[in-house]
Amino acid sequence: MATWKTLLLQDSASPLMEQLSFFHDHTLLILVIITVLVGQLMITLFFNKLSHRCLLEGQFIEIVWTILPAVTLIFIALPSLRLIYILDEVNNPLLTIKSIGHQWYWSYEYSDFKNIEFDSYMVPINSLKSYQFRLLDVDNRTVIPFETQIRILVTAMDVIHSWTVPSLGVKIDATPGRLNQISFSINRTGLFYGQCSEICGANHSFMPIVIESISPKYFMKWIFKVSET
Ligand code: CUA
């Protein structure tokens, strides 16, 4: 979960997010190098009085500062492209969950079992427990087993929403009339918080997502318990 002073990405809880973090660091490093180089050039340009009366063109330097940025961009584009294809990959999901965006809450369907359905509303501020996070906790969490390939099918009932959980590296639009899919697996136990990230109306900020990652064994127990009630 993001807390105060979380300036960069959250800690990854899935292989996808790990790769995204690596890509982020790689790109940030290139960015810092460019900033330092250009900054140094601009500062030296500012603090010297050199001039060259006869200078009209510099073919060589023109070639260098055209090719160099192009090569740099390739070094960003290729890993980025690789990541896009990795994120889109679906490898034999063991569990499929459907998530439906509404104004303004998410509802979930576990249709691999006895068609478990529930709504997941944000806990209002006046009924928050001391262990809950303001604007971020929900009444019914999305329970998911860890180390399991999950497929999430995402759609919406009314307007466009976006099912986004940063620590899992998942961000996918929920569009009415369409069914989007994304797959991921979680590395560890824990609570992973997310929010809608498509401006979807007045209460856009108040439709959080809470993933409760537990062991597959306890997940089965949870399924049995929920399907009985
Ligand atoms: Cu749903 Cu923003």
Automatic annotation (TrEMBL):
* Residue ranges occupied by any Cytochrome oxidase subunit II copper A binding domain in the UniProt entry: 92-225
Q: Name one GO biological process term.
A: ATP synthesis coupled electron transport
What is the required cofactor set for this protein?
Cu cation
Name the Gene3D superfamilies on file: 1.10.287.90, Cupredoxins - blue copper proteins
GO MF terms, alphabetically ordered: copper ion binding; cytochrome-c oxidase activity; oxidoreductase activity
Cellular component (GO) terms are: mitochondrial inner membrane
Keywords in alphabetical order = Copper, Electron transport, Magnesium, Membrane, Metal-binding, Mitochondrion, Mitochondrion inner membrane, Respiratory chain, Translocase, Transmembrane, Transmembrane helix, Transport
Q: Which domain of life is it from?
A: Eukaryota
Which regions span the lipid bilayer? 27-48, 60-85
Coarsely, its chief localization is: mitochondrion
Reaction equations catalysed: 4 Fe(II)-[cytochrome c] + O2 + 8 H(+)(in) = 4 Fe(III)-[cytochrome c] + 2 H2O + 4 H(+)(out)
Q: Name one Pfam family in it.
A: COX2
CDD domains in the cross-refs:
CcO_II_C
Q: Which SUPFAM superfamilies match?
A: Cupredoxins, Cytochrome c oxidase subunit II-like, transmembrane region
Cofactor descriptive note: Binds a copper A center.
Q: How does this chain sit within the bilayer?
A: Multi-pass membrane protein
Record localization: Mitochondrion inner membrane
Where's the Cytochrome oxidase subunit II transmembrane region profile domain? Answer: 1-91
User: InterPro entries per the record?
Assistant: CcO_II, CcO_II-like_C, CcO_II_C, Copper_CuA, Cupredoxin, Cyt_c_oxidase_su2, Cyt_c_oxidase_su2_TM_dom, Cyt_c_oxidase_su2_TM_sf
What is this protein's function?
Answer: Component of the cytochrome c oxidase, the last enzyme in the mitochondrial electron transport chain which drives oxidative phosphorylation. The respiratory chain contains 3 multisubunit complexes succinate dehydrogenase (complex II, CII), ubiquinol-cytochrome c oxidoreductase (cytochrome b-c1 complex, complex III, CIII) and cytochrome c oxidase (complex IV, CIV), that cooperate to transfer electrons derived from NADH and succinate to molecular oxygen, creating an electrochemical gradient over the inner membrane that drives transmembrane transport and the ATP synthase.
Family named by the database record: Belongs to the cytochrome c oxidase subunit 2 family.
Q: How does it assemble?
A: Component of the cytochrome c oxidase (complex IV, CIV), a multisubunit enzyme composed of a catalytic core of 3 subunits and several supernumerary subunits. The complex exists as a monomer or a dimer and forms supercomplexes (SCs) in the inner mitochondrial membrane with ubiquinol-cytochrome c oxidoreductase (cytochrome b-c1 complex, complex III, CIII).
Its recorded name reads Cytochrome c oxidase subunit 2
**What organism is listed for this UniProt entry?**
Anoplophora horsfieldi
- Give me the gene this protein comes from: COX2
